[in-house]
Structure formats: C-alpha cells, structure tokens
User: Fold these one by one.
Assistant:
Number 1:
Amino acid sequence: TLVDAVGFLGDRLMARVRVAPQPLPPVDSATLTDSREVRAADFETTVFDSFRFLKRSAVACVTFAPQVSTTGKSVEASFLVERDKWGSFHDAVGEERQRLPELEIEESGPLPPYDFVRLQFGA
C-alpha cells in the first residue's frame, strides 16, 4: 500500500552515482585502440562490481542502462541510504574512487528517494 511505501522511504535518502572511464592520455593510435578495446570489455563488469560494493552501505539499489554519448560510455545507479548511515555510504564512494582511479565516479545527493517510487494510476 501507499502508506507502507511512504513508511519504507520515510527516513531514507537517495544517492545517484555515475561512473565513466577517465579519458585516456594521448598515445600512438595502435596502443590507443588496444587499450580502448580492453577497457570497454572490462568497464561494465568493473562498474557493476563497484555498485555491488556500494550496495552494502545501502538499503536498495536501482541500476540504469548504460548510456553512450559523445564523451563516452557511462553507467548510473541510485542507492537508497539510511539517513544516519549517509556518512558511511559517502566514505564507501570515496574508497571506490581510490580503488578505481581509472574511473570517474560522481556522487550526487542526498536527494529525495524519487528513483524508488513507481506509481501507476488508472485501471
């Protein structure tokens, strides 16, 4: 019911985490092509392993489909975090930044938990 859903989200916050590869330094084209192919193959696996680590500090996680733009590929996820454990989650994101320097990890929040609400009206 709606009351149960509001109760579940009541004292929780949302963090949005976006992960993208750091730009590669300029090198000769043969090395660059090989590096990009290896990075592309490992990118999604590494990101989802990172999200699994971050979920340990959260109540729930919603992962979005990878996005491709002119600046490259990125993956986003939203994490539902207990208000009193926000600091622990933020620290976990910092640990991931240190562990994965080849990735650009952006954290935004705390935000209202909009990504965890799905309402359908009508019959």
Number 2:
Amino acid sequence: RRGGRIRAASLAASTADTLDPAKGALSTDYLRLYMLYSGLTQYDLQLRAQPGLAEELATQDQREWHVRLRRGVQFHDGRPLTSADVVFSLLRHKDPATASKMKTVAEQIEAVTASGPLELRITLSAPNADLPAVLADSHFLIVPADTRDFSRGIGTGPFRLREFLPGVRTVVVRNDNYWRDGRPYLDEVELIGIADEMARVNALLSGDVHVINAVNPRSTRRIRESGTHTTLVTPSSLFTSLIVRQDAPQTGNQDFTLAMKYLFDRPTILRALFRGYASIGNDHPVPPGHPYYAADLPQRVHDPERARWHLKRAGLLGLHLPVYASPAAEGSVEMAAMLQLSAAQAGINIAVNRVPTDSYWSSHWMKHPLSFGNSNPRPTLDLLFSTLYKSDAPWNESGWKNARFDELLLAARAEGEEARRRNMYVEMQHLVHEHCGSCIPAFIHFIDGYDRRLGGFQPLPLGGFMGYQFAEHVWFNG
C-alpha cells in the first residue's frame, strides 16, 4: 500500500550524527544513510549482494572488476548518475582528510577508473571475492562527484531529505524519481533517538512512534500482549564486549586479559540478562552457526579460581580498577555488575562507572583501560576482521596488534579455494580467542517492536530495522 507517514525511534542519537556515508557510526546514521543514498549493490535477507546501482559487477580473477551502471538514475537534485560519481565515492575513502570509517578496508582498492559514462573498472591490490558484499555496506553508498558539503543529503536513495537536526531528528520524504519501480511505499519517515529503552517502548505503545529497535527481552511480553503491537526477533552476530586495552600498563598484561575472560558467567548472562534471546560467545566475533565458525575451540567457562591464578601470575591481585559501562552498549551495565562480583572472588576490585548514553561513544568508548563496546554485525568476515581487529583498524577497540593475524587476513581475502580460506579464518578466531583484549560472552538477537499496521517488516541479520534498510520496503496500513 502506498502512502502514510511513520515515526521510528532508534536507541542512539548524537550531535555527531552525520549525512556523510563515510562517517556513519551509529544505528541512526545507518538508517538515515540508507534512506538517502544507494549503493552499487544491496543486501538481500540472507546478506547476499544483489544488484543496486550496478546492473553488473563482473570479474574473472576477483582482482579486476568491471562495473556497468543502471541507465536513467538521478540524484535528488536532478543530476544523472555517471561513472564519475562512483569513482569519486569509492576513492574518497582512501583520502585521510575524509576520515572514513572504512579507510582500512578501502586500502585494498588500488584504482577506480571510468571506461565510459556508465562503465568503470575497480582494480584491487589483491583478489577479494567478497567485494560485491563490501560495496553494499552503508559507508560505500554513492554520492555525487566532488561533494564537499553533505548538509543537503543528496543521493539516489528512496527518500529525499526535508529536515536534519543532529541528535534530535531526521525527516525524509518519498523520492518520486527513485530508480527502483514502485518503491518506496511511505510518503514520509521521521527518525528520532530515544536512549532509554522503557521510554522507547512507552512511545511505541502510546502510538507516538510506529517502530523501535533494541527492545529489552523483558519488554517483549508487554508489547505482544498489547494487541496492537508485536516484535520481530532476528538472530545475529551483534555483541557487547568488554574492552581490555592492550596498550595500557596493567590491562595490557596477557594474564590480566585471560583473567577477565574467565570472569564471565555466560549461561547466566544468556538466561538472566537476555532471557534466551542470545547465543553463547567464546571471546571471538564469529557466532555459532556461521560457515567459518571455529567449532574446535573449547568453550571458555566461568572460572574465578583460574582467573585468580592468572592475576597472581601477573602480580595484580588486589588491583583496584574502574570499568565504564552505559545503556548505549546493550547489556553492558548489567554485565559490569556481574563482572564486579566475579572479580571480587578472583581477588581484584572493579568499580562500575555508569555513563549516560549521550556521551558514552564520544567521551568514554575505547578511552579507558576497561570499558564496554557494542559491535554491529558485518556481512563478511573480511569486513568484520578488517574494521575491528586489524592492527591499524580505526575501530580496533582493544588496541590489539598481531602480525600473524594481519597476514592471515590479507591471505584469506585473496584465497579462492574454500577449504584453505576457512582454515585461515578459523586460525584468526584462535588468535582473537587467546590473545586479543576482546571479551565476548554472548551474541545478542535483535528485537524490534512495531505497530501491527506496518507491513513488509522482515528479519535481516545485519541489524535491527531490517538491517537499517526497512524504510524502503515497508508500508503502513493506517
């Protein structure tokens, strides 16, 4: 059904909210960017790359890719899409002045050259069969050539920008010249941030908003029993992690890092904190069920005595140390409280510092020896490891540097033989499990709440809100 106006509330908004795809960092950014811009490819419900602005993305050797663009695509200001726009959009990630979140990923792009108005060639430094999936990521959405001012949000996406107030709200209206026939269905979408989960649920049930993300498992029954609203549960690779900085004097000790990993009671976290809406993690970022999951790794268990042994060997028994947590990192406040109790059993004192949502990511995340992070799923392991664990990755939360890991990452990217590639990714999981300062106790299911009048809402494991792309696909029967 065509028509209708809806409001969506995400858990995070910030004065650093952006209209530049290269700089997106929060769920509200991804939602906003997918509404305004389009990529060369798009994810389907199984995270496979499907044609987007590129009608064809072909290669013989996974290193040199030939791209043919759709005809008749227009930017919101009426300019036609050409290969020059794609060349600019991809190469700007390599420029340090752009401050792209995907700079380390874009380093594999050796050259992008136009071979015609709607044709171009992408040359990589080494083969990468995952390139089509990488290019569907929100950071690689296409902008007009030579764009320096992003305040108007000019893209080729399903909606045009009407209003943007960072940290407050975004309002978009249907793009009647959208290149995909029949989409979008909605006339207008307003996106706001409501940090408090209970306030988000109340806003949904009162009719003030029509769809929310990051619903607490404790709220699911209340939403479903309302009669007018329901939930969408999406198993995923989302995780909240304890970040143990490897470049700090005490937390950088390998025995201290291992001690922290033995202090998490994972079954209790799964049962008490997430009420079964999660799966147990093993201190690496690949969830059970993934084709490359390292099933040979023994599951790390809750063992305060073993943690005490590591702390004693490190000479850190009796240590006093703060840990920073916030509702911004889902479940981190509760995990921190549980960690505090286990740490006392192991012989150290951890003080929990709860930080408000609006200042956590900018002022505390990755800035203390111990803090919590929250990492969204990535469509490929190459993208996951490149953005979070490579030595020079901008989101390398624990500051971990491992030459063998970096070597394997580049080798796996270029490896065409499936069994060898899998073995490389398994070894990388072993390295993270044993040596990295990333403690991952669980993988969290996404839970969205929505008005039953909203149609077309389906699970996409990249994130809540249908992998942040719901606005293009849903309709409202209001």
Number 3:
Amino acid sequence: YDVQVKVPAEFIVFASGVLMNPQEVLSKKYLAKYREAAKSDSIISIISAEDRKAKGVTVKNKMNNWHYTATSISDFAFGFSAQHLWDMTSLEVDAKTGKRILIHSVYAAETKSFPKAAEICRKAIAWFGSEMPGVTYPFPVFTAFNGSSAVEYPMMTNLNDYAIGDRFFWTLTHEISHSWFPMLVGTNERKYAFMDEGMAQMIPMDFTTREIRKTTKNYAADAWNSRAYEMKAGREQSDRPPAVISLNFDFGNWHNVNYERPGAAFLFMKDLLGEEQYKMALKKFISDWSYKHPTPYDFFNTVNSVAGEDLSWYWNPWFFEFGYPDLAVKEFKEDQGNRILTIEKPGNIPVPISLKIIFDDDS
C-alpha cells in the first residue's frame, strides 16, 4: 500500500503502515519529539491538551498530505483527528539488529483509560513476542486509536472508551493479539471467526493475569473466560459447534461460540500438551502459515503433527459437536486402606481434572 491522506492543518493521521514524511506534516517542535520517541523506551507525550489549545501542531499549510506505505498486509485502515492527544514510544524487538517498532496511542482528552494505553501496548507486544505465542511482533508500527468501536486492523486497533480499568486492559491486549491472528496468519474471520477470536482470547490470558493482579487481587483471565463460557455452554440459544460457518450465527450466540468456547479449548490444549509442546505447535503453525490463509483443519493437523498423535478425540467434541463440559465425583471409597476417588464425565467435551482434597486435619 502507498497512500496519501490529505487533511487540513492541525489534523493528525494514523494508518496501517509507516509515516514516510513526518518532516513535511509536523511542525519543528513536534517533529523533534516524534524523532525522540522513535528511539526511546519512555512514553513521550507528543501532543498534550495544552498543545491542542496552543495549536501549531502541524506545519501551516492549508492542507497536508500524510504519506503512509505498508507491505505484507491484507488491508489498510486510517484514522484522523484535530482534537486527539498523542503519546508515543518505541520498543526493541530484535536485540541482534536493534530493530525497533513504533507504538502510538491517540485519544480524546476526556478518555479515562487511554492515558495508559501506550504503556500497555509496549508491555503486551514485548510479552507476546517472548512468551505467548513467542513470535516477534511482525509489523513496524502499532497504533491504539480511540474511536467508536473495538475492532482490529493491520497495525491498528480502533478502540472506544466503553471499557475502563481491568476491562480496558483486557480489551486492548485482546486487540493487540489480533496482530498474529488474523493479520500475520490470515485465518478467514468471516468464515471461521473462532480461529482468530479464540486465539486472541487465549494468547493474552497469562499476561493480563500477571499485570492486572498488581492492582486487582486474585484476578485470573482464564477463570473469567471459563465462567463466561459456563454460563452459556450447552444452551440452545447461545451455544453451537464453532466449526459451523460463522455467517450462520446471530448476535445471541456469536460471542460465546467464537470467543469463550474456543478460548477455553485452546487454553485446555495447553494443559493437555504442556506449555512447551503447545508453544512449539503454535510457533510451527505461525511459521508455516504466515502471510497465507489456513483453515481450522490446518491448525488441527499442525498440532497433531507436533504432538505425534491423532487428537480427534479432543477436536471433534470441542469444535464439531453440540454439548458441554461436565465432571462429577462418582464414588469415594476405602479399599484395604486405599482411598479411591472415581471421577466421571457426564459431559461430552473433554476438560482437565483438577482436584483439591482437604483431610480431617485441614491439610
């Protein structure tokens, strides 16, 4: 993509891609801050509320051309504003080459959550690159733009301010996760939305849990997702097999089928394989299918290959069958000094068994 967006003075433009002409659109003061932020680990306020009042952010042309280019992306998006504030930082993503990516947070002055967005983006992109999925952020820029929705685009998210606090943190990291699915690995989100939304549900769980627990005791993103799924699992109006073509879903069942249920399925697969083997499978899937368009079957086959076994017993109930997960204590007995606890599975969907046993002495 090679795009020029022509806007009046004082308007700033952010887009999928790299700004090719900052020196032609930003006035001297703001160009200097832009260039400083492009090599800084600190969050730098490029445009504050005071700057907006003073004006003079852009060069004094009647109209300015903001020139963006991008390669290896599936679509192009842009946002612009003459009122929004602007925070910027950068992050080294390759220690060997010193490669850095630019991170922007662009938001309305009255927003409660966005002043923290640049820092959240920086931490999240670093975590995703090193931990889960363990693949470096693939693009040169990421922009969190305070708009009217919560939608992902190449190198951008358009995020409103409906969510505050923990909810904002979770939503933003979810949108950043989409940089890998479907922006890097081009899953068909209109046909099989569970692939990208389920992945974006699972990928940030450990990161958000770690960060949010710094202020919210006992927060657990995986537990939150499981509780949300539990409320709808097996209900006729809100649960369907995710492999049903996404265009056939309505508002009442869309979120559960494409977010919570596959999010839980991908999470429990990590429990089944172990974290290292699971990450190995995820990395192989990303490596094999970057800038291509895989189906869910390609994902299932990749995991089967890495695991060295046919996991159809897991894939079929989670993604192709009606039903729900359910475990129960069937029997507890003592036999010649041995205590025997029998667990049964009334539900058809497999989940891990986690037992907490408390003895008479409270141990």
